[in-house]
Design brief:
It is built from 24 helices and 24 strands. By secondary structure, it is α/β, with parallel strands linked by helices. The protein has 3 domains: about 220 residues, Beta-Lactamase (2-Layer Sandwich), CATH 3.30.450; about 170 residues, 2-Layer Sandwich (Alpha-Beta Plaits), CATH 3.30.70.270; about 250 residues, EAL domain (TIM Barrel, Alpha-Beta Barrel), CATH 3.20.20. The strands form 5 sheets. An 8-stranded mixed beta barrel has the order 17-18-19-20-21-22-23-24, surrounded by 4 helices. It has a 5-stranded antiparallel sheet with strand order 2-1-5-4-3. The structure holds ligand C2E and magnesium ion (2 copies).
Length: about 750
């Protein structure tokens, strides 16, 4: 039989109620029995006390009668009439059963008597029988169906011995006890058990019988039989059952209601929903569990989703994919209402797997955290960032102005593709960005995500690492050149060029040298961030031809320039510094274009030296010997050891622009710059401040004793053709001070 939960709970409550009722009945039965036993004991003790009291009273009365009679018998005046008095006394005292005054002669035989008929026969008496009575004594005896209480003693007389014997019938006890206890008693004689007093109408079947002995301590002449009506179980049961049943039934109803609202009803609703969900998901089987299993599956699925949603990415602390997708859907809904635009950016960070193999997962986690921090810092409050899986991050950016989006995404790109410091070592990561914009690239989250992924695939296969979705985009679209192919081609064609940014002496405003900075325009005339190009060249063994191209172009520029002793600064890549043949290569170009070594300033970053100091120092020392001037670039961002600085043929320190740019308003930066200048001067080095954008910074640096400055305030990087003009004007300090 199948029980549903409602029927089951009714049976349960009914069972509980019945059990409670039976328990109550049983306890009542035990209680009544124990009470009856206790009552019987108390009752017996009380009655026995009453009987003893009554006997005591009778004894005292009999004694008082005895003394009265002996006093009269001994009085000389009354002695004459004593027999007459006795007779009269009988008449008035029915309680006295007999009074005998017996006289004995010298031989001890009775000579005269006065007694009530039926009394002891004096002729059968002898004086010796009363020896004990010479002192008045009290005794009891039984004659036929009578019980007597007797008192006897000598009465003083001359010449003869007289004994007074007063007897009283215990029959009076019956009346007295009846009056005292309010019970009606009947008397019966029993030859064996003596005189019996029974209660009228005694029902021995149901009553508890109490038997009390009557008589003196040494002679019991009868028994008193009384009944005690016990407490009746049924009577008590009948009296209480209605109340008990009312209480139990009320409690049962309350319990049922409680169960119904707090357990059964919610369970029924849940079961109903589960069944409903299950019906739409799965066909029910015939077995017993078919009803429950699909419901459990639904619950499990919900639980899994909740669990996933509750979790953030444990490594970076960023939101995970589930939450991000939720935000994306929300944003699209919002976009539909308020015509807002959003960009979905999917970022594939490359290079982590290699680090995991070489350095272990911990380093990768630290790097991932740094990537996440960089992303968070470069985002605005309205933007969202999440880590999807291993190397995949996603951004949701609100697009305020479409033309600013490129700049924003590039800025974010540079926050990812930059040098990372982990435990004093520098690491570099690569990244690809795929971007899709709502609503033009997709009307819903799925579509947008699909299109951003397509753009990402294209980014991974094309020359520019940031790609926006195009209508022609397809996952299989691999058209165009790969980055490597493009760069190789660019080196050979005119897509690459050098621009020159002057480094100016703060005292004389003379141009110390021109830093050559690489520029690359892709076939579509997009400018590609140069640091990314360098990094790609490094990763794809293209740095050597690239550096060769830079040296050749720079040397050609110097040789073609009409400015005397013009100097050019060249940035070197880390890979270049590990090439033992670098000095020879440079020598080739110097000779080919007849450039003096002093006209070349080599810029290297701190990190480059620290990566493998031994090898790098050797190459740098060689360059120093050749007569090239060395400058430490981006000083302050890495961890250059002063020992190396002393060992190297370095001439200049370039304070990194991150300290210089805002130093006019940032006291911390000022402190760093001032300390760096002092340090450099202690080491006999010239100081160049890069990133000088304002006159205030320029003045502050002059006041601090900085030697040279470089920055937009003085000049932006110049095209080769503009350099001559620069030299014509820059030599005048007042012009420099006014800004260009
Ligand atoms: P860097 O050597 O520290 O060059 C200075 C960078 O700061 C240049 O960016 C320059 O345009 C920029 N800059 C100069 N003055 C200011 C200013 O006042 N404000 C601001 N905001 N920026 C200023 P660029 O040309 O994008 O170069 C970036 C980095 O790429 C360079 O940093 C250098 O490390 C590397 N690089 C550039 N050209 C070459 C090259 O030919 N070979 C190698 N190996 N690396 C190069
Ligand atoms: Mg530089
Ligand atoms: Mg720099």
């Amino acid at each position: 039989m199948k029980l549903n939960i409602s029927t089951f709970s009714i049976f349960l409550v009914a069972g509980l109620t019945l059990t409670m009722f039976l328990l109550w009945s049983l306890s009542l039965l035990v209680l009544v029995d124990r009470q009856n036993q206790q009552n019987a004991v108390t009752y017996r003790q009380n009655l026995h006390g009453q009987v003893l009291q009554l006997q005591q009273k009778q004894r005292l009365w009999l004694q008082s009668q005895y003394y009265l009679l002996t006093t009269l018998a001994e009085s000389p005046s009354e002695r004459q009439n004593f027999q007459g008095f006795l007779w009269d006394y009988y008449q008035r005292n029915p309680s006295i059963w007999a009074v005998n005054l017996v006289e004995f002669d010298e031989r001890g035989n009775p000579v005269s008597r006065s007694s009530k008929p039926g009394c002891l026969q004096p002729d059968q008496m002898h004086r010796d029988d009363f020896d004990d009575y010479l002192v008045p004594g009290i005794a009891s005896c039984r004659i036929d169906d009578k019980a007597l209480l007797e008192i006897a003693g000598p009465v003083a007389s001359e010449g003869s011995t007289r004994v007074l014997l007063v007897s009283m019938d215990y029959f009076d006890f019956l009346n007295e006890f009846s009056a005292l206890s309010g019970r009606r008693l009947q008397r019966a004689a029993d030859s064996e058990r003596g005189i019996q007093y029974h209660e009228f109408g005694l029902n021995l079947g149901s009553a508890t019988q109490v038997t009390i002995p009557i008589g003196e301590t040494d002679w019991v002449f009868g028994e008193l039989h009384l009944s005690l009506q016990p407490i009746s179980f049924w009577e008590l049961f009948e009296r209480q059952v209605a109340i008990v049943l009312t209480i139990l039934v009320t409690a049962a109803i309350l319990l049922l209601l409680l169960l119904h609202f707090n357990l059964i009803k919610p369970l029924l609703v849940l079961a109903d929903r589960m069944r409903h969900a299950a019906n739409s998901q799965q066909q029910a089987g015939d077995d017993d569990q078919a009803e429950v299993r699909p419901g459990l599956q639904v619950m499990q699925d919900h639980f899994d989703i909740l669990q996933k949603m509750a979790k953030r990415d444990p490594v970076t602390g960023l939101n995970n994919r589930v939450i991000f997708e939720d935000r994306l859907s929300q944003a699209i809904r919002e976009g539909k209402r308020s015509a807002r635009r959003y960009a979905l950016v999917i970022i594939d960070v490359r290079g982590l797997d290699d680090f995991a193999v070489q350095r272990g997962q911990y380093i990768v986690d630290v790097l991932l955290r740094q990537v996440a921090d960089g992303l968070k810092e470069s985002l605005r409050e309205s933007d969202h960032v999440a880590r999807f899986e291993r190397n995949l991050f996603a951004l949701l950016l609100e697009v305020q102005q479409r033309d600013q989006l490129n700049t924003l995404v590039e800025k974010i790109y540079l926050s990812v593709v930059r040098p990372y410091q982990v435990f004093g070592r520098e690491f570099e990561l690569n990244a690809y960005f795929g971007v899709a914009i709502y609503p033009e690239h997709g009307a819903d989250a799925d579509n947008l995500y699909q299109h951003a992924s397509h753009a990402l695939v294209r980014a991974e296969h094309s020359e520019w690492p940031i790609q926006f979705f195009r209508d022609a985009d397809d996952v299989t679209d691999t058209s165009g050149f790969t980055m490597i192919q493009s760069l190789r081609r660019a080196i050979e064609s005119d897509e690459l060029k050098l621009v020159f940014q002057p480094v100016v002496d703060l005292e004389t405003y003379a141009t110390v040298y021109l830093e050559a900075l690489l520029r690359w325009k892709d076939p579509e005339k997009h400018e590609i961030p140069i640091e990314h190009t360098i990094r790609l060249a490094e990763q794809n063994h293209l740095i050597k031809p690239l550096t060769n191209w830079i040296f050749e172009t720079a040397c050609r520029f110097v040789s073609e320039s009409e400015i005397e002793d013009i100097a050019v600064g060249i940035n070197l890549s880390m890979i270049d510094l590990h090439d033992r043949h670098l000095p020879e290569r440079i020598e080739t170009y110097l000779q080919r274009y007849r450039v003096k070594p002093a006209q070349i300033v080599i810029e290297i970053t701190e990190g480059q030296i620290m990566q493998d100091p031994g090898e790098v120092i050797e190459v740098l020392a060689h360059l120093g010997v050749m007569g090239l001037s060395l400058s430490i670039d981006d000083f302050g961002t890495g961890q250059a050891s002063l020992t190396y600085l002393k060992e190297l043929p370095v001439e200049k320190l370039k304070i990194d622009q991150s300290f210089v740019r805002d130093m006019a308003t940032n006291p911390d930066d000022q402190l760093i710059v001032r300390a760096t200048i002092e340090l450099a001067h202690t080491l006999d080095l010239k100081v160049v401040a890069e990133g000088v954008e304002t006159l205030a910074t320029c003045d502050l640096l002059a006041e601090m004793g900085c030697d040279h400055v470089q920055g937009y305030y003085l000049s932006r990087p110049l095209e080769a053709e503009q350099v001559a003009t620069w030299f014509e004007t820059s030599v005048k300090p007042d012009l420099a001070r006014k800004g260009k």
